[in-house]
Write a structure and sequence with these properties.
Length: 365
């Protein structure tokens, strides 16, 4: 009897190829799409739209894979959309994909797998799973550095990793496209969506103003680092640390958003040098399966061979850092100063290819 695995299918080329790779392993695949927010919206962009669900269904029909749609609108609203609005209301820049993966998608996949008697779950993420000698499981970067998605999966734990398969993590995006063409998949040339699935047009400020007006800020003042007024801004929720474009104020020289002050409703502008920070404080840190050699020590730092690397956003290449416990949280000191350390984003830690875990950036220093 074939082992059964539940595959989360977004309707894109990655999860479509994942289905084929799982079948090549001789597994019985059950396809699942998730009805979140944008499924019932008129947006044509973003993932999880009716068009994407239809594409996922067509792939399943092509290979005679059972297919089902899970209605996750309620948990998605609670764990993702309300979190998204709450973070902006505090003058922070949220990272919705991380709680969505941890609290909505993977939770639903595991629950459905248990319901149908499947031993495992799978997705089309560009990351890898490794079973360690001590029986624990580690999350590794995907082979393709341009597509690696381990940054968004740092909230997963042993429960998820012990049952998770990531079939395309060992391939590059061009290789995935080529396999899709080989199998004549209708998604082989489908473009990727870079926007948040529930926003669609990448206008986060517009979405917040329309759907969560109570979390949006009123217009306020741009100020320089000395507090001098420079002009009017749209509202703190329309800006993020490091932003240069779309400020709508002419100052004669390049200025960047260097901080947000929700108490005064001020956007602080400064030079590029002002974006540099020597470190950060991370809170609510989650370790996936760290070997003892890199565990935070009581009152001290992390020991082991070589400093871990921290990434402060999904496109960040990473920088070596030392980690120490502090009263505020985990103190992360960069080997070299880094730009645009943004409260609300994630600091994700690595040692070589292994993703150790991560935490939420509280502040830069």
């Amino acid at each position: 009897m074939k082992k059964r695995v539940v595959l989360g299918m977004s309707g894109g080329v990655d999860s479509s190829v994942a289905a084929c790779l799982l079948m090549e392993e001789g597994l019985e695949v059950l396809g699942v799409s998730m009805e979140l927010y944008s499924c019932d919206s008129p947006l044509k962009k973003g993932c999880c739209t009716p068009i994407d669900r239809l594409d996922a269904r067509k792939i399943c029909e092509q290979f005679k894979i059972p297919f089902e749609i899970l209605d996750l609108r309620k948990p998605f609203k609670t764990h993702v959309m309300e979190y998204f609005a709450s973070e902006y209301s505090k003058g922070r820049t949220p990272l919705p994909c991380a709680p969505c993966n941890r609290d909505v998608r993977f939770k639903a996949l595991l629950e459905y797998a248990d319901k149908v008697g499947a031993y495992g779950i799978a997705t089309g993420h560009y990351a890898r799973i490794q079973k360690n000698e001590d029986g624990t499981f580690s999350l590794l970067r995907g082979i393709d550095p341009k597509k690696d998605q381990s940054y968004f999966l740092w909230g997963l734990g042993q429960t998820e990793l012990s049952r998770l398969k990531l079939p395309i993590g060992n391939f590059s995006k061009p290789q995935v496209r080529e396999m899709a063409r080989k199998w004549n998949l209708i998604t082989s040339e489908k473009k990727e969506s870079q926007e948040l699935c529930f926003v669609g047009d990448d206008d986060h400020a517009r979405f917040l103003e329309e759907h969560f007006p109570e979390a949006a800020f009123q217009a306020g003042d741009y100020v320089d680092e000395a507090g001098k007024r420079l002009g009017k801004h749209r509202g703190l929720h329309a800006y993020t640390i490091g932003q240069r474009r779309g400020l709508g104020v002419a100052l004669g020289e390049r200025r960047y958003v260097v901080s947000l002050n929700p108490e005064k409703n001020e956007v602080v502008l400064g030079s590029k040098d002002s974006l540099k920070a020597s470190g950060l404080i991370a809170k609510d840190v989650h370790w996936i399966a760290p070997p003892p050699s890199i565990l935070p020590l009581e009152g001290g730092g992390i020991k082991g061979e070589g400093d871990p690397v921290v990434r402060i956003r999904s496109t960040h290449p990473g920088v070596e850092a030392t980690l120490n416990n502090s009263e505020e949280g985990l103190k992360v000191e960069f080997k070299n100063p880094q730009e645009a350390v943004t409260p609300g984003q994630a600091a994700v830690f690595y040692q070589n290819d292994v993703c150790l875990g991560g935490g939420w950036i509280e502040r830069a220093f």
